[in-house]
Specification:
Tim17/Tim22/Tim23/Pmp24 family-domain-containing protein, about 60% helix, transmembrane, elongated, mitochondrion, NDUFA11, mitochondrion inner membrane
Amino acid sequence: MASHTGGDDDKYKRQDAVSAAVTMGALFGTGGLFLAAVKTSLERKHVGPWAVFSKHGHIAATFAAVGTVYEFSRVASANLREKNDHYNNAIAGAFGGAVLGLKAGRIPAVLGYGALMAVTGAVFEYTGGRFQGFGRDPDVDEYERKEMLRKRYRRPMEETIAEIGEGRSIRPPGYEERRRERLKEAYGFEVKPVSTDPDRV
C-alpha cells in the first residue's frame, strides 16, 4: 500500500484505465470460460462442444464483465485521486460486486455483492495485497537478510548431536575414537583403523 502524496520524486504516475480493464477482462473471461468448460464436461446428458458458449457462456461473460469493471474502476479511481491505496480497491470492489449482483436482478443483491467485494478488496490491499502478507523491505539486501535468518535459527552442533546422537553419517570430531572405545567395551576387541589410501602407511 503506497501513498503517493510526497514531492516530485514520489509523484503519482497516471495509468491507462482502458488498457488495464481490457487486459483484466480478457484474463477473467478466460477463467470464466474454463469454468464453463468444466461445468459442461460434468453434464449428465450428452451435450455438444458449443454448449460451453450456448448453455454456460453466461459464466464467462459475467467473469469478463466483473474483471473489466473492477480494474477500470480501480485504475480510474487511482488516476482521479492520484493515490495508490486500498480505497481504490474498495471503490472498484463496490462496482465489480454490483455487476455481479445484477445477475440476480434485485437491488439488495447488487448492494450486498458490492459491499462484500468492496470490503474484501480493501482489506486484502490494506494487509499487503498478497497472500503471503507484506512484501519484503526493498532497502534490505537479500543476502544479508538470509544470513541474519541463518544466524537466528542456527543451533550449535553439540546441541544437535545431544538430541539425535552420533552415527548415521553424523560424525563430529573424535567420532572414530569414541566408536572404537564403544566397540571395545561392548565386544572386548580393539578395532584398528584401516586406511583405503595406498600411499598412506
